[in-house]
Design goal:
InterPro entries: DUF2909. This protein has two helices and no strands. It has about 60 residues and is an all-alpha fold. The protein has one domain. The chain is elongated and about 45 Å long. The relative contact order is 0.15. The model has no long low-confidence stretch (mean pLDDT about 90).
């Protein structure tokens, strides 16, 4: 489960970085930045749902 969470976090940061790159390249005129940010939001929601499912099924325990 730890690897899945780390992969999600890496993909979220990569999507955010690509949105920054598109912002700088397109000067805010294209739709690629908005698409990259939408993908980031989708990945964040999927990560949240995965964490909630992990807690509900017992794959992730609540202790540190």
């Amino acid at each position: 489960m730890r690897i899945v969470v780390i992969l999600f976090l890496v993909m979220i940061v990569a999507s955010l970085g690509s949105a920054l790159l598109f912002l700088l390249r397109d000067r805010g005129g294209g739709t690629r930045m908005a698409r990259a940010l939408a993908i980031r939001v989708g990945l964040s929601l999927a990560l949240f749902a995965t964490l909630m499912a992990g807690f509900a099924t017992g794959l992730i325990d609540g202790r540190l």
